[in-house]
Amino acid sequence: NPASLRSDGWQPCSGPGGRLHVEWVATFSGLRSYCHLRSYKIRKRDLTTRSFRVRLQEFFRVLKGDSLIARTLEFRRITFEVLKDALINVYYAAHGAVPIWLQETEWNEIAAEELDLASLDEVTLLYWGGWRTQSRKGREIFLEFHELYHSHGREFTVQHYTRWLKFNSKQSAPNTRIINRFARFLNANAEKWPTSTFDDPIKITKCFKDFLKDNFLTAHQENRNLTAEIKAWNRFISNIDEVFFQSGTWPEPFGEGIPKLSLREVAGAQTRVSRNDSGVEVHDKLITEVPLQFTDDQAIELIFSQIRKDLDLIEAWATAQAWSLRKRQLKRKQLAKQGSPFAPNFMNPSKARELKYIPDDALPDLCARFEHHGYLIHKPDQSLDVLYCCLQRQPLAYQFGLPTVDSLFPFMCLLVLKYPKITHSFLQDLELYDKNNQLSGFVKTDSGYQLTGYKDRRKKHHAEQKILLSARSAVLVHQVIQITQPLRDYLRKNGDNNWRKLFLTCGKSFGYPKAGHMTYWSGNVLSSKFSELEDQFGKFTNLKGERLKKFLCRVTLGSIRASKAVQIYLDTKSVQQMAEALGHLKYNPKLLSHYLPDSILAFFQTRWIRIFQKAFICEAMKDSPYLLKATEFQSMEELHEFLKNHAIKEIPEHLSDPLIDRHSLAIESNDQVVISIDKGILTALLSLDRAVETAKKKENLSGLAIYWSTISKLIEKEIIKNNDHLLRQHLVAAKENIDPKKMEELIYDTAK
């Protein structure tokens, strides 16, 4: 039994041990794994024996080494301290006294040892190693087979694992989630579906039908996207067929076999719908939260302002953070030339350990040591305390400009903002060097630098993407290469093929370098980093507290890419250009519906596009009762209401009512949006347009102001090419009365 150290009857109690608010099983998990690997059995009655003391001291030595728990040395130290406290409480509760040898055991005095993995049982190693598999791209994937091992036994579990191990190695993105769900289902229904189930084709069919019901009932209860679940199910059934039936591992079911499901036709905008904290249904594919139901005025604000503002905010933040990291990396190189790698320590290590910062006068020698020795990770036999005077490692890594966790995310954001065809998988797997150690992912061509990577969702023969970079984007990639070079050198020296990847990070400080880390600001990750992020974003936005948290939760490379694609459409009015920007192989007329809800599309495609297609006329009003001065309006909303009610009118029914099926109507080429113009209306529009053009804080312009500014330009252009004498008179008079200053207070978004 892998749970060879049992906690039956061991109750935590108060006593000299202290920290007791730790889950009991988790506290002993490391010791349990060690005992199972070494085939040790420990019972409560063994506490007072010499053999228990010997085995516990062995465990402490192995815990300090690298072979048992693949976590940082600090994590292992905390594990030791928590376990020691728990054992002290156990002794105190059971015997009223604690052995002196346990009280006097100190972490710093323990000599690290490594497990002889070759001598250990292979299946036991699999059990405690998390049933590890690897994708075609070398990504580690762990299968949740621990409980299956207990319910269905060693032989069945190993067979199940071996088949998936081989299959996953051929997949770029294995369907792991549903594989794990099936393992949990079998464990929970072990009596109903034991190992003998998979010797009988009829029972196999019944088992999978039962799992089908369980899986989709759970999906419904958890409010998961059913279309995505159906796709995952059908893929899982195809995988099962290849892995177990075609290989002859299980007998193939009779007839139609295991059921597949028909996909429901769902509007694209319905595939990414959730409810926000206010209970409003929102489409959450973009950075900008988009409610499913919108008025025209709200649509104007979103289309002409909010999406662009959100993208501008990300770009401003990313530019500042990328430059901050680059400056620190360059400073390290510069200071290293002023220092000596062999200079004595600047202060007593015991005092240096307490410092929360790195003294400026110590930096040159510290930087020189880094450049001389290269990047090193912190481990028992290679302590960085000696090299860097016991200084705290996180501030040191920051000052050195090392690519710590999430620090390269700004570079990724800037590349996706410029080239939305770049996906997170493209960057995650991007190889700088090929298998022959030749530079391949970033090369100079006659046209400039080219980035070459792969997009998983394309079919295998079309997966490769080549992106010609602008000079600025090429500089960003050069900077990433130089920032990550120390980590690349370390990996190459240690024979780790990840050295070939472009994006490498080193954890919180001097951890083992990992490739392709993706940033997601949610849950505990956001909570731990929020104060730092609030300071960083505070330079570019007034968003604070919960509003900023909600914004950050929506920021991913995928949402940035989607928002940028929508912005391209709003600017060009072309779904074809949007598709090209996303790197799609072919045009899909339904593409836009995956990014915007129907309420936004109805406004944009019926009213705004119609104006840009020039299906409107300017109508000059004589003796108009609406003559006005631009100074009469106190807010942008007031001006908007007037212009909406008195300038644009006579919109055909199928344009003003998006509920009417536009595709069932034969839209005539003479459909027109009539814009009524007098001197006052034109003065207001031109004044507004000039105010927008000369605005000093363009990032804070309201969507309504941008909307009417754009219409103003169209009207002016239409009048100039028109032969209507009265319209031209209105234009001349309006230009004489233009007063942008009177509009300056109206054009900004007052909510910001």
Describe this structure in words.
The structure is a single chain. The protein is mainly alpha-helical and 752 residues long. Among the domains are: 24-115, no CATH class; 130-245, no CATH class; 327-400, no CATH class; 614-743, no CATH class. It is 49% helix and 6% strand. It has 27 helices and 13 strands. A three-stranded antiparallel sheet has the order 3-4-5, with no helix packed on it. It has a three-stranded antiparallel sheet with strand order 6-7-8. Strand 6 and strand 7 (448-454) form a beta hairpin. Helix 10 (296-336) packs across helix 12 and helix 18 (523-537) crosses helix 19. It starts with 23 loop residues before the first helix and ends in a 16-residue tail after the last helix.
Provide keyphrases for this structure:
mainly alpha, 752 residues, 6% strand, 13 strands, 27 helices, 49% helix, three-stranded antiparallel beta sheet
Helix content class: 40-55%
Report on the biggest sheet.
Answer: 3 strands, antiparallel
Strand runs, count: 13
Low-confidence stretches: 1-23, 623-631, 650-671
Classify the secondary structure makeup into a structural class: mainly alpha
- Give the averaged pLDDT, no decimals: 82
| Distance separating the two termini | 61 Å
Give me the number of helical elements: 27
User: How do the strands line up in the largest sheet?
Assistant: 3-4-5
Q: How much of the polypeptide forms β-strand, as a percent range?
A: 5-15%
User: Which outline best applies?
Assistant: globular
Rg result:
33 Å
